Amino acid sequence: MSWRLNPVAPGAAPAASLAASSAPAVAPQAAPAPTRPRTPAERPWLAALLGLALVVLAATIALPVLALLGMSLWDSAGQFVGLAHFAAYARGPNVLSSLGNSLWLSAASATVCVVLAYGYAYALTHSCLRGARLFRAVALIPLLAPSLLMAISLIYLFGNQGLLKGLLLGLPAYGPFGIVTGSVLWTFPHALLILSTALATSDGRLVEAATTLGASRWRVFWRVTLPASRYGLMISWIVVFVLVITDFGVPKVIGGNTQVLATDIYKQVIGQQNLPLGAVVALILLLPAVLAFVAEQHLRRRQNASLGLRAVPFQPQPCPALDRTLFAYCSLIALALLGVLAVAVFASLATFWPYNLVPSFKNYDFDLVDGGGWASYGNSLRMAAGTAVLGSLCTFISAYLVEKPRQFAAARQWLNAIASLPMAVPGLALGLGYILFFNAAWNPLQGLYGSLTLMTLCTVAHCYSVAHITQLTALRQLDAEYEQVAASLGVPFWRTLWQVHLPVCLPTLLQVAGYFFVSAMTTVSAVVFIYSPETTLASLAVLAMDDAGDIAPAAAMATLIFISAALGRGLLGALERWGVSRTQRWRRR
Questions:
Q1: C-alpha gyration radius of the chain
Q2: Domain residue spans of the chain
Q3: Strands 350-352, 356-359: pairing kind
Q4: 381: exposed, middle or buried (C-beta count within 10 Å: 0-12, 13-18, 19+)?
Q5: Are the folds of 95-352 and 366-436+449-589 the same?
Q6: Which residues of 247-285 are buried (b: 16+ CB within 10 A; e: fewer)?
Q7: CATH top-level class for 95-352?
Q8: Is 274 helix (H, G, I), strand (E, B) or coil?
Q9: Which of 53, 98, 185, 368 could staple 259 via S-S, CB 3.0–4.6 A?
Q10: Which residue has the higher pLDDT, 93 or 427?
Q11: Domain 366-436+449-589, CATH class in plain words
Q12: What's the predicted TM-score (pTM) here?
C-alpha cells in the first residue's frame, strides 16, 4: 500500500486533510505537462540581438553603398552639386566606348559560356556519360582560382610569346578576344551549377510520353527538355552577365586598350584620385547589376512555380552514339579547363619563359619582385581564415533572426533586405563605398581604414547574400514545431539555437565557411581600394606583378592561391564529414 501527502489548502480543516492523507492512494494517472509560455525576459534579448545585427549590417553594407550616392551628389567641400559629376563624366571622350564595351563583351561572354555549359550540363544529367562525377569535378576547378589566373594563362598561350599564338591568325590576344575567353573560362562553373540544377529537375513523365508517341531524341530535346529548362538558361545568362560586367581582373590583365566600366573606376580612383567621378562610374556599374538582380529574382520565382508536385525524376537511357558524342564534347571542355590551368602552373615553374623551360622555384621568390612578397600570402591566409569564421557565424545568426523568431516582423524584413543587398552590388562599388564611409573624418571607425580587419569585413559583406540565403534555406528545413515545443516547455531560445538549430545546420555552416575561405583567397575587386602597404594580399600581389611586367611570378602567386584554396576547401570538407558523423547520426536508418 502506498501513501502520499497532500498539501493543506488555505482554510481547510486539518482533520479532513489528515483523513485524505491516510487514505490509500488510487493508481495515479500521468498528468499533462504544464504549458509554460516563453519567459518575458527573452524578448529584450531577441530585440537586442536583432538591433545589433541591423546596426552591423547597416554599417558594413547599407551605409557604404549610400556613401557612393552621397559622393556623387556632393563635392569635397560638402556642398550639394546635383548631377554635375555625372555631367562631367558624360563629357569624357571615352564614356560611350566604356559603356558599350562593357555591355557587349558581357553579353557575348554570357552567351558563349551558357551555350557551352548547357551542353556540358545536359551530358551530366540527361545521358549515361562515363565518368560523370570526374567531369563534374573538373568543371568546378576554376571556382578555386582567381580570374587573374585564367587571364595570365591566356597570355602564355596566345600572347606575343605564347605557345599557340599562331592559331589566332593575326587576331590580337589583348582585347575583346582575351576578355571574352578569360571570362568564359572562370564563369563556366557558375553557369554549370545553375544549369545542372535546372536540368536535373526535369519531369521524366513528359520525356516518357513524348518517346512513347514516337518523337525522336532531337524532337524531345527541342520540344520538352529545352522549354523546361528555359528559366535556368535565363538565370544562368543573367548571373554570368553580372559576373563579367563587374569583374576587374580579366580586363585589367588581358584587356589591352579596351576600356570597360570596371577599369574606368580603377583609373579614376587609383590613377587620378578622383573619388567623385569614381563614385559616378560605380553607380553606373551598379545600375545593370541591380536590374539583372531583379530579373534574376523574378525568374527564380517563376522557376520554382513551374515544378509540379507529381513530377518524376528523369532517368536517362543508354544511347551509344549520343553518349560517345557527349563524352567527346565533355572531354574537350575538361581538357581546355585543365590545359589552361596547367599552362599557368608550368609557366610558374619555368626558369625563363620561353627560352629556358627547365623547372625551378625561381619565380616563387616573391621578395625579389613587387607585390609585398611572402607577407602578402600570409595576409591572405589570415584574412581568409577570419572571413570564413566571421562570415559563417554572422550569416547563420542573421538567417536565424530572419526565419525563426515570430516577433519584430518589420525589423526582420529589414534585416533580410539588407542581407540580400550585396548580391546586386559589384565588388568595386562596395570597395569604393568603404573608402568613402570608413575614411570619413566624422566616422568613429576611421581607425579601421587600411587594416586587415576592414578588408575582412568588406569581403564578408561582398559575399554575404549567397551565404545568408544558403543558411536561410537550411534553417527552413526545420519545422516550426521545434520552436513551439521549446516555448511551451519554457526553454530559452538560445538553448534551442545551440542544441537543435546549430547541430542540424552544421554541414551547411561548414560549406558556407568553405565558400567564404575560397572567396577571400581569390577576391580582387572588393579589396583593391582599401588595402595598405602592410596589408596587401596575394591576389593584389598578382595584380602588382602583372603591372610591373613580372608575369611569371604573378603566375606563381596565382598558382599558390589556387593550391591554398583547394587545400582549405578540402580541409573544411573533411571537417564537414567529421561533423556530420558526430551530429547527424539521427539521419541514418
A1: 29
A2: 95-352, 366-436+449-589
A3: antiparallel
A4: middle
A5: yes
A6: bbbbbbbbbeebbbbbbbbbebbeeeebbbbbbbbbbbb
A7: mainly alpha
A8: coil
A9: 98
A10: 427
A11: mainly alpha
A12: 0.82
